Amino acid sequence: MSTSPRTLRIDIWSDVVCPWCYIGKRRLETAVSRFEHADEVEVHWHSFQLDPAHPKGHRRPVFETLAQKVGAPIAQVRAMTGQVSELAAVEGLSYDLERAVSVNTIDAHRLSHLAAAHGLGDQMHERLLRAHLGEGEIVDDPDTLVRLGAEVGVPEDETRRMLAGDEYADAVQADFQEGRRYGATGVPFFVINRAYGLSGAQPADTFLSALRTAHADTARAPH
Amino acid sequence: MPDPLLQNGTAGQPVETLPDAADDRPGTEEVTPPLMNLGSADAAVCTDGVCVL
Q1: What is the pTM of this model?
Q2: Chain B residues in contact with A183 (beta carbon < 8 A)
Q3: What are residue A191's DSSP bridge partners?
């Protein structure tokens, strides 16, 4: 797909189990809705596994996983994530991290790539984020992924065929490597027109300012 | 393969390299242009499976 010189391209690295990624997605969408040139914005989602070493097939409540990682009691983890959930609610998102289950996200990312091939990348990423963060869905379960994919328009047979093989595994890895080259050590991570970077769930005003800066640059560039 | 570059600053101003993101070792070849950071440094981010405020 060619990109017109006046298009604002936003590349976003994200994981489907990342609470800040969903918040960042909403804040960016808020910024784009207020942006004078919203029709020129083109978003591309990229895979970034926060915990690629998580064993495939291993499922564990998120609170237990976090407690082990940070060395804190579950009560403390619950309080910490409670603050995240409150900030999510401000953005209109309903988190239920008590029910969330840690899994390896490679297959969810492969599904996102399949969806993107159908022009459904944004819808798929949104659905997977909501499924994990708000609905307690197990996002490495094949039947769950097939169902979630179908909800946004990905043909069930294609998802099953993809999950049975290793299709898009290379694309997931390539995304990760590209993100690292840009400097992403965590997510969400945003790159505008391959020139401007924003790390983290920035305020909508910050995104809007970045969009305007990038657009002004584009307008100044010879074309 | 060089490490990534991510720089702080605004256009026309000096830039400051963020920790863990610079590679100025001689002999390395840059393959990805450095990004101008337009975000605040304290924005929430998830790293290594841990998300903190």
Answers
A1: 0.86
A2: 4-6, 18, 21, 35
A3: A11, A197
- Range list of β-strands (E), A50-177: 60-61, 101-102
In chain A, domain spans: 15-51+104-211
CB-neighbour burial class of residue B11 (10 A; exposed 0-12, middle 13-18, buried 19+): exposed
Tell me if B6 and A15 make a contact (CB, 8 A cut-off): no
Could you give the CA distance from residue A59 to residue A138 in angstroms, rounded to a whole number?
8
Which residue has 């159908």 as its token pair?
A: A118
B20–chain A Cβ distance below 8 A for any pair: yes
Asked if the bond preceding A188 is cis, omega within 30° of 0, the reply is: yes
CATH topology of domain A15-51+104-211: Glutaredoxin (3.40.30)
pLDDT tens string A124-160: 999 999 999 999 999 999 999 999 999 999 999 999 9
Query: Buried b / exposed e across A117-151, counting CB within 10 Å, b at 16+?
Result: eeebbbbbbbbbbbbbbbeebbbbbeebbbebbee
* Location of structure tokens 């830039």: B15
Contacts of A206 in chain B (CB under 8 A): 38-40, 43
